[in-house]
Amino acid sequence: MGPADSAPPVIRVRGLHTRFGAQVVHAGVDLDVRKGEVLGLVGGSGTGKSVLLKQIVGLLRPSAGSIEVLGKDALNLSDRDRLNLQSRWGLLFQDGALFSSLTVLENIKVPLQEHTTLPPDLIEDIARVKVGMVGLAPDAAAKYPSQLSGGMRKRAGLARALALDPEILFLDEPTAGLDPIGAAAFDELIGSLQKSLGLTVFMVTHDLDSLYAICDRIAVLIDKRLIVGTIDSLLQETHPWIKDYFHGPRGRAAVAAHGGAADSREG
Ligand SMILES: Nc1ncnc2c1ncn2[C@@H]1O[C@H](COP(=O)(O)OP(=O)(O)OP(=O)(O)O)[C@@H](O)[C@H]1O
Predict the structure, then answer these.
(1) Which of 18, 140, 229, 234 is an S-S bond match for 25, by CB 3.0 to 4.6 Å?
(2) DSSP 3-state assignment of 99?
C-alpha cells in the first residue's frame, strides 16, 4: 500500500541553507518526498517550515542548496518551464487565499484560465466538478468567500488547488482554525482525494491528529535541519523536542484517538 521506496523522489532537496540577514533558518536541509506519499512537515514555531514550502514552490529563494521538483531543477527554470511546473502542483495556504471579489466558482476557474486554452464552457464544467469533489454543495459555487464558513473556505481553496489535476498538493496548515470535527473531516477529505487521485501531498502542520490520520512519513525541522521518519520511528527518537511533541499530552491524545501505541514504547 505504501509508496515505493525505489520510485524517484517527486521533491528532492539537498544541502539547503537559508539566511535572513544574520538569522540562519536552515543549515543543511535534505529531503526526499516520494511519489504518492503524504509527508507532514512539523517543527517548533519559527523554525522555517513555511519558508521551506515557499522555497520548494519558488516563492522564496534559498541562500544555498538545490531543489528538484518533478525532476526539474526548481531554482534554475526558464519562465516557460516555471509556468509549466506550477501547473503540475496545487497550493493551499492557511486561509484558502481566495480572491474575495470572485465567487467560489470564479476562484476555481482562475488557474484553468491562466494555464489552459480550454473553452469557457468546459472550464465552467471542470470548476463545477471540483466544487463537488471537495464536498461543497452546488449552491456554494455562486457564493463569495465572505459568505462561507472557515471550513467551506478551505474546501473552496482546495478545489482551486485541484483545478489543474495536479500531481503534487502543497498544504500549509490545512486544519488551522477548524474545530476538531471540521479538522478531522478535512483530513479525511485530503486522505481520500490523495488516494483516489494518486496525489503526492506535502503538508506543513501543527496538527498531530493529521499526522496520525493521513501522513505516511513526517519530517521534523529541528536545529535547522530535518529528521525524517515514520511516526513509529520518530516515537523512538531521543531528541527532547521530538519526545515532548509525540509523547506529550497532545501526542497521547492523538495516539488514543488513532489507536497507536506510543505509551507502550515509553517505558
Ligand atoms: N521573507 C522573509 N524575510 C525575513 N525573514 C523571514 C522571511 N520569511 C520568514 N522569515 C523568518 O524566518 C523564520 C521562519 O519562518 P517560518 O514562517 O518559515 O516559520 P514556521 O516554522 O512556518 O513557523 P510557524 O509554525 O510559527 O508558522 C522566522 O523567524 C521568520 O521571521
Answers:
(1) 18
(2) coil
